[in-house]
Amino acid sequence: MAIEPHVKLSIRSLDHNFGSFQALNQVSLDIGNGEFVCILGASGCGKSTLFNAVSGLLRPTSGEILLDGQDIAARPGQVGYMLQKDLLLPWRTVLGNITLGASLTRGATRADRERAAELARHYGLGEFLRHYPRALSGGMRQRVALMRTIAAGREVMLLDEPFGALDSQTRIGMQQWLLEIWKEMKRTVMFVTHDVDEAIFLADRVVVMLPRPGRIGWIIDVTIPRPRAMDCLTSETFVEIKRRIMEMLYSQATLHGVPGAMTVPA
Ligand SMILES: Nc1ncnc2c1ncn2[C@@H]1O[C@H](COP(=O)(O)OP(=O)(O)OP(=O)(O)O)[C@@H](O)[C@H]1O
Ligand SMILES: [Mg+2]
Questions:
Q1: If exposure means fewest CB atoms within 10 Å of the residue's CB, which of 12, 43, 161, 257 is most exposed?
Q2: Does 49 contact ligand 1 (Cβ within 6 A)?
Q3: What is the pTM of this model?
């Protein structure tokens, strides 16, 4: 099937079953070149499963995943992926962790190390290149893990709750840092979060997924102009978009009988 020229990643009618459990049901989404898409949804609705499929780590039961029109299903390494639990290797320095991708695929060259060091310096990790992860704060470690994903050099990056474990102040700093990188490097980003404010602040579009079976419920355009500063969090448009999303999430939560909470399917 033909692909629109501005579409970078096309996910088409994706289904995935774990045995008799339907984790993804007819998930279809076209993502534009350079677009930032955030995915919200209750625990267990299939967000990480979707990322595992798009990254090629998991072969979907059926459906297509096209990158620039080429089928990448079950072909790892085509997109950058920061997993939900992305751990740094404790025995490698910050620089060693950032160049891990190259080390694993073909051996890191001097040029890889120089490029990684330059990237790290540019984005405020320069002083820590020779440090080991244990000497870094949680926020710094997440920056290194994110930098590793960026250093892999893929045009599309999947980030699964990259700031999940951070306090809100550090988180805000990281969001701004990520938007800067995204703008400078013109990457296409899919970003999973449970934080509605974070989703709206970062995204061009917010995709709300629903559980049992995991599927796309709604897609909301975020019409807030860029560059965005923190004061946009209290703007009328922001509050209106947040209200709509909260209503969607809340209607789903009450639908399952537990106001404000969602149960994970067994
Ligand atoms: N390897 C697996 N085998 C069987 N079931 C699985 C497997 N991986 C995931 N599941 C199930 O598929 C569903 C979706 O899981 P997934 O990890 O994609 O959810 P999620 O939306 O990322 O949740 P969270 O927000 O908690 O990270 C869950 O019900 C989970 O139990
Ligand atoms: Mg997950």
A1: 257
A2: yes
A3: 0.92
